[in-house]
Amino acid sequence: MMLDRRLNAFRPDLAEASLRGKVEADRFVEGTRAQVVAPVVALRQQPDLARGIDTELLFGEEVDVFERKDGWCWVKALSDGYVGYLPENTIRSEQAPPTHVVVTQRTFLYPEPELRKPHTDILSMGSRVRVTGTAETRGNHYVVLEDGTAIFAKHVQPIGYNDGGDYVDVALRFLETPYLWGGRSGLGIDCSALVQLALLMTGRASLRDTDMQAAGLGEPISREELRRGDFVFWKGHVAIMEDEKTIVHANGHTMTTAREDFAAAVERIGWLYEQPTGYRRLAG
After folding, report:
1. pLDDT digits (tens, 9 = 90+) for 150-167
2. Is the pLDDT of residue 273 over 80?
3. 109, 140 in Cβ contact below 8 A?
4. Range(s) for CATH 2.30.30.40 in the chain?
5. Range 14-93 has CATH code 1.10.510.10
6. What's the fold here for domain 167-281?
């Protein structure tokens, strides 16, 4: 069986060590661990900024690095196993492990614990940071990071935090977020990333792309069974049922994350992508 290059790092000249005996390559290497240090970084099929993006990685997420060459790194994301190239200056090795995760759609990173200061960056939900202290300014509480920068305290929670929340509610926080092909952040997101991030924030793992989710996310159900939290798949697209009649999805029609009447969406999408290819439900 042909291995999926999105989830397996192999080329004729180089491959990850775990694939020894499964693929042919001149060399097999163990990855070296590194962390993303850019707010959002695109992962590409080739080391070329002119190439389209496959997905994105968020601040604090970890990767295994198999090659560093000409300012690029060939990596595999620990969060979902996705393989690709990113600029070398967007990752750093030997970073202390993060302690907290951003739980709001977006949050500002300030140079110090003071909301009146010009922010230095914007971090997306799912970003991971290392908190080393706390501070209060005029009644506002902040967490302070290793470099002295600060985030509003209510916008982060300890790593592993899960309030048992509804992933549909998480997805709905992204309403009106711009649609971005390959996007995986609160700054721009695509359909399958909306599913993945909503699940991630409620303690559930998911692969990245629509075809991967359609093949392995939960169990198949019929259209007649659809209810809140179920997933509807088309060729190259996925939506989440908000209730029996409404979907929420990041889509190229509105170029946003939007609510849409399910029956109307089936009719609208049908002329280009045909009818839905399947429906799935998570256990429990």
Report:
1. 999 999 999 988 767 899
2. no
3. no
4. 14-93, 100-158
5. no
6. endopeptidase fold (from Nostoc punctiforme) (3.90.1720)
Residues of the chain with CATH 3.90.1720.10: 167-281
Q: What is the CATH number of domain 100-158?
A: 2.30.30.40
